[in-house]
Structure formats: structure tokens, C-alpha cells
Amino acid sequence: MTAYSDLMRFQRETMALAQVAGRLGWDQETIMPRGAAPQRAEEMAAMESVLHARRMAPAVADWLMAIDEATLDDVGRANLHQIRRSHARATKVPGDLAAHIARTTSAAQGIWAGARADDDFAAFAPTLKDVIALKREEGQALAEGGDVYDAMLGDFEPGTTGADVAAMFGALRPHLSELRAAVRAAESPARLQGTFDETAQMKLTRQLAKTFGYDMSMGRVDKAVHPFSSGSGLDVRITTRTNPKDPFSCFYSTIHEVGHACYEQNISRDHLLTPLGQGVSMGVHESQSRIYENQLGRSRAFTGWLFGQMKDAFGDFGIPDAESFYACVNRVSDGFIRTEADELQYNLHVLLRFDLERALMAGDLQVDDLEAAWNDRFAADFGYAVDKPSNGVLQDVHWSVGLFGYFPTYSLGNVYAGCLHEGLRAALPQLDDDLAQGNTTPATTWLRENLQTHGGLYEPREVIERASGIVPSEAPLLRYLRAKFSDIYAL
Amino acid sequence: MTAYSDLMRFQRETMALAQVAGRLGWDQETIMPRGAAPQRAEEMAAMESVLHARRMAPAVADWLMAIDEATLDDVGRANLHQIRRSHARATKVPGDLAAHIARTTSAAQGIWAGARADDDFAAFAPTLKDVIALKREEGQALAEGGDVYDAMLGDFEPGTTGADVAAMFGALRPHLSELRAAVRAAESPARLQGTFDETAQMKLTRQLAKTFGYDMSMGRVDKAVHPFSSGSGLDVRITTRTNPKDPFSCFYSTIHEVGHACYEQNISRDHLLTPLGQGVSMGVHESQSRIYENQLGRSRAFTGWLFGQMKDAFGDFGIPDAESFYACVNRVSDGFIRTEADELQYNLHVLLRFDLERALMAGDLQVDDLEAAWNDRFAADFGYAVDKPSNGVLQDVHWSVGLFGYFPTYSLGNVYAGCLHEGLRAALPQLDDDLAQGNTTPATTWLRENLQTHGGLYEPREVIERASGIVPSEAPLLRYLRAKFSDIYAL
């Protein structure tokens, strides 16, 4: 057991250092003085260099060799499995290649931002080709003869292949597109109008965070340009934003990030600062943020309660009753931008990116054809044409920084949330009565006890199945979306 | 030059990591959620462990051996000197002893706090004996046959010996005590009365920080229980506190910390993240905080301007005119506590601690006799008796955490500030006219150009002499204090 204890002690220190690096990122996005940026870049690089060296440490390989797995319990084996995977990930990629990727993607992000500002895909294309070539090389090193895209996906969603995802997304797409067309043809609910005091937004958003079970004694809510959740264990901080015209952006960003944060806060303390002490995958993480935000936060029952809270906070804001408020919260609008999309259309954006990036990696699509491919696909799924690259192929930062295999986890999260929601409804028949009182505790307790507490103990698909009782599939999500939007839009 | 470049690259990363560790401390004292404390302790320990390993790194010894000093310029030699000192410091102390000290002082701090709360020195004495024994062992390892106390002092004030300090402080003490007795016998100015809105205090305190040249684009002002300055280079943050009854505590804590912070902010950018890129010693650091706070901030000219600012912020607060305000700011009051002492009495507190801790380390004073020795000395210097241990020997945390050799740097700072003040007055004959307008720029520019910009380039006493044109001595401080308090108290 000595090798295992030594490895875990080393690992615990590494996890603590990773928390420090993460908090440095939080500081940078929230409260850092602007002039500190150049020094901060060196501080972040120094932390990254320390963490990289620890991930590669030869001592880890020695411990892994020395451990007799038969002597370990389930938790021990799961820890070992996570450490093996992360060590293999770090050691398979040659150092020169990793450094080359870091340099190239760092420069590419700036080139992408310039090209997007100029609406000029051609200015970004050569850089994207470089990034893809390097990432493919990395993928080959990771895949060791297997599928390159699967290796990339494995960084974010271990145990899931591109073929798994393609099957699920392929089954989802025509139904989503059809439902969307029907909604577009129907009469639309009213938009929210007027202005909403930003201080009052922040006050209500903090209340909402607590309502959804976020533990403020181990967290903070601050403002940032992009909402995010940061940290694991006893210090998990979230950010949100305010826009006087759009309080829903503030409230639903907060509830979304609270979903991420509660996942991290609610992992069993037994796993604190161990490989199991953080969310098991991006997809499962997104399932928590999305079920908090959508299936709970945008439900008829909960919006009924929220309508009263908003009237208390802002007075009469022109929406006559709870039913109109529910429709307004869930209004489906035409648009080009993924991050602004409602829950009906969001997955169409993601499915598009998944198919294109998988084709790029397989060599079935060339960068020179990417803009046209994007625009054709968008027109087919959404029913109108992309007007400019910043509303199309240039809208997301991900590819410029080498994030291939990340996009599908957004929709996997929605698929998982669909499964969990059916499990939750079956377990808690009185759920809507509680939500109508602003009481999320039964729902969040169910999620904590059935999923969140396990952290990295089970593989992604396994933990979803254990919690929901459903083999992960797109069907529950589709049932949920159909029922909800057919009702709101009287289809 | 390769060994030097390699060493400096390694060192730069170490300095960046030290900045990260420091910022973690800032976060903990200002905005960290309270429930995060146990995890934070592990994060801090992990950072300390990384930094410790880098300070001890065998590669550093190899580089130090390989460097040909003759090929370096002044800056290179100064960097090398600092790295050599720090590497020697880290490698001379056996690892077991360092760990033993860390464990003992960590526990001792809690025992000291309990003993202070109970006013029971006997409850702390056995622990203090252990700390002293361990620190003496460490001092012997550092001193390698030389004076143990000198070795401890060298951690905070390199190039200065206990004998140097004893000579200076010995010359200072009778005059301070005599001046204090005369002030005590004279009529006292009015105390500040009333309550002062804490939000308005924070607003004015931020204004004061800017007035003294603190660059807010590379810093922040937040509240904390104890005011402090944290960080070097491009991210130097300060904290202050508010008390509705005592706005001077807020304003002068801020100005004091701004002195520390401006020293760090104003070091030449050439030295950023190098060993020269931080204040050269605790004494020189304190000279900056004290000259900002006292010789500038508590001057008749500047308080005249501050009086107007306070009237604008708080309305009439019962002080009739600028002259009464100046006397009120500089009022000398009886008291037991070092951290609450005015600039006349402060050094008497420090001199007491210096003599006692030096005697403890030399074995000339035993812990069992410490309380009596403290009380006798206090009565002799202050003219009244200590009423309870929490107002006497138990008031400071320093000894419990093993900080021996630190206390004298507080008064060295005052001595250095006295020298710098004479140099500054000689260089800027119109200084009072500027201060009376709330314009500190000529003074802070002089300090920046003559002292702060150099960072660690010159040894402490050398940089004071270069800047002030005066060989460091207690005489200028004494002249300043005599003139100021004779005037205010009409002696």
C-alpha cells in the first residue's frame, strides 16, 4: 500500500496546485487590476510548468508500476484509473509538439479575434490549417493507431466515441429541425421589454444562487464578462453578468453556473483533492448546469415563482401573468449565435460543429471549404442564411485554441439532462408543487445524492445510468422538448 | 553566460510562483469564503513545498558554481549575490529541523492566542521555550560559528548586525524616554470625537492612496482585519480597515501600506520578477511606509490639506482649525500596545523587544524570567506598570511563530526614514508648500528616483546612504521627533 499512499500524497499536492492555478484564472477574470496582465501571464505559465512537470513525473510511473491493484477497493481503483489516464495523456505527447501547439494556439486566438472583427475567414484559414495539423498530430500520438477524433473527445468525455455521439446526434437532428420549423411557423410570445436595475439584478441573482443550493460559505458570486464556475471542493466561485435590458441573461447564467458549482461543491468530502474530487466529464458537468437552468429553472412551476420575485424586485414590468411570463422566458427567436440560443435551438448549433470538426479531423473536409460547409448546413437546419462570418464560422473561439472534441459535450450534457430529468420526475412526483414555491431542495438533493456526490467514481455514461435508471439516449431530451414547446406554442 | 541565463530563467519562474503564493495569502485575508479555510491550508502548503524545493534545487548550486562572475555587470552580480544568499539560507538548515520548526510554530501560534485570551503567560512559556530552542538551533546552522542573533537578523536586514542595531538603539532610548516624559507632563491636545461614516472613510482612503502615488491600475484597496501590502511588480494590493470612531486608523494605515506598495510598484521594470525586483530589506521597506505615513502624512503642511478633505467628507467634526487638527493627529497617549502607538512612543516598544529577544537568544535571559523583565523594562521606559500579560509580554504574535530578528527592522525603518527625510528636505526646499496643497508628487518622485527604483540592487544601508547622503544613524530621527513634539507640546 505504500506506493499507493505515496502516489495519492503526491496527487493531493498536485490537485491543490491545480486549484491555485484555477483561482488565479478566476482572479484574472474578476478583480485583477488591468495593468497586472503581463506579469499574470508569467505567473500562469509558471504554474502550468509546475503542473506539467508533476503530470509527467517519472515517480508517478514508478508508483503506478509498483501498485498491486488487487489490494485496492473501488475508490482506490477509480483513483488509479484516473491517474493512469492523465499520466498516459501527459507522457504520450512529445514535449516539442506540446510546446508547438501551445505557441501556435496562443497566437491563433489573436488572429481569430482579428479575423472575426474584420469578418474575414480567409485571414484565419491558414492559421486554422496549422492548428488542425498540429492537433491531428497530437491526436495520432494519443490514439496510438486508434481513431484520432475519439482520442480528442476522450480528453473531455472519457469512454464516449465519435461514433456513439454521431449516432445520438444523428437521431436528434431531424426531429429538432422539424420541431424548430413548427415553432417558427407558430405565433410567438411577447418579448421582455424595459430596463431592469443592475443592482437589483445582482441581489436577486444571489438569492437565486442560494435557492438552487449554492453554498455561499464556500463560494462567491462576482461579475465577469463571461459567466463561469471555477474551483472544486471547498472553494467554488461563480461569475455572472448584468445587462439592464436582459435580466434573464443574468438570472439564467447564474442558475447555469450554480449547476456546475453545486456539482463540485456536493462531491463527497472523501474525495477532496483526489482525482475523484471533481466532475467526471464535461458532458456530465453540462448536464448539471443545464438541468438546473432549463428543466428546473425554465419550468412552468419555477417561472411562476420567479415571476413573483421579479415583480417584487422590479415592480410591474409589462408581463401580465405567470403564464405569459413562462412563455416569455422560453421564447424561441431566430438568431445566428450559439451562446445566445434557447434550449430548443442550442443543440442544432452544436450538432453542426460536431459534424464539421469531425470531418475536418478525418480529412473529409478541408479548411478552404469550411465556410461554405458551415453556411450550407446552417441554412438547411435553421431555414435562413448566415449573413457574415462573425455570425457563422468565426463565432466561436474553440477551434482557434485547439479545442476539438469539446463542442459535442455541450449537447451530450443536454442529452444527459434529459435522462436525469425523467429519472427525477419519476422519483419526485410532487416536484412541480415544490418548484412553484421556489423550493428546489428535493430536486437538488436528488441530484446530489444520485449523481453529484460520486465525483469521478463512475465513468460518465455509467453515472448517468445509475442516477436516472436510463441507458443514455437522446429520446428523453426529445420527449421533453416536444412536450414543452408543443404546449407553449400550441402545436 | 549560459549558466547565468539558465539560472535567471529558473529564478524568474520561482519569483512568479512566489507572487502566486503571496496572492493566495491576499485572497485569504480579504475575499476568501470562510468555509474554504481547510482546503486553502493545503493549497498554501503545496505552494510552499514547490517553492522550498526550488530554493534547494541542486541545479541552482550547479549554475552558481558554473557562473564566471567577472563576465557580469553590476546588476548581474547583485542578482547572483541575492540568489547565493537565498540558496545558502535554504540549504544550511537541515530538512528535519525546518519541518520541526514549521510544526512547532504552527501549533505555538494557537497556544499563544489561547494564553493571550486567558492572560496567562505560564500557559505559553513551555511552548516558547521549545520555539526558542529550535530557532537557536536553526540560527547556529545559519551562523556557522558566528553570532546566532546576527544570522536571524540577516533574514530580514542583511548586512546589519545585532551590535550595529544595539549601538543605534542604545543611543536612541534615553532621548526618546526623556522626550516622552516631557510630552506626558505637558498639556495634551484634544482627542478626535464623534462617528465617521465608513463608506466615506473608504472613499477618502482611496483618494489618499492615489494622492500618495499608488497606481490603482496595478493595485487594489480592500478591507481586511489587519492592513497589509501584498505583491511585487505589476500587481501590488493593499488592505486597510475602518472604525467609525477612528478614521485616522483607516487613513494612516492606508498611507503606511501605500508606502510599502509604492516601493514595490516603483522598482525599475528591468528588475521585474528577478531577485532585485522586490524591496531590499524589511527595514528599508518600513522606511518607505513610515516616511509616507509620518514625515509626510502627519506633517503640519499635509494635515492642513487633509483637514479640508475631512471636512468635505464628514462635515464639521468638532476640530476648530488646521492647527488643532495637526495636534490631534499627532496626539501622544498613554498605552500598552505597540501597534497602537504614535510615532514618538513606537520605537520604545520596539527597543524593548529587541533587547529582550537578543538576550533570550544569547541565553542571558530565561523564558521563566521574561514576563518580569518585560514589565520592569516597560515601567522604566513608559513610567507606568503593565496591567496584564495581554497588554505586555503576550501582545505580539511574532515570537510564537519564530520571528526573532524581525522586531528591530520596525525601528530601523524609522531611523532610515529620519535620514531620508533630511535628504528629502534638503533636496526639496518647497516641500511644505506642495504638501499643503495635497501634492506629494515631488516627495514621492524623489523617493522613487533615489531609492525605490533600485529594488535589491544595493544593500540596505548603502541605498539609504546613497539616497539621503547620510550615513545611517539615529540622530536625524531624533532631531525630527524633538523638533516636532517640542513644537506641538510647547516644550
Calculate the terminal CA-CA distance of chain A, rounded to whole Å.
Answer: 62 Å
Could you state the oligomeric state of the chains shown?
homodimer
Number of helices of chain A: 20
Spatial sequence of strands, sheet with the most strands of chain A: 1-3-2
Class inferred from helices and paired strands of chain A: mainly alpha
State the largest interface: A-B, 39 and 39 residues
Q: What would you call the shape of chain A?
A: globular
- Which radius of gyration of chain A do the C-alpha atoms yield? 23 Å
Strand residues, percent of chain A: under 5%
Q: Provide the CATH architecture of the largest domain in chain A.
A: Orthogonal Bundle
Please count the beta strands of chain A (DSSP E, at least 2 residues each): 3
Q: Which blocks of ≥5 consecutive residues of chain A have pLDDT under 50?
A: none
The biggest beta sheet of chain A is recorded as: 3 strands, mixed
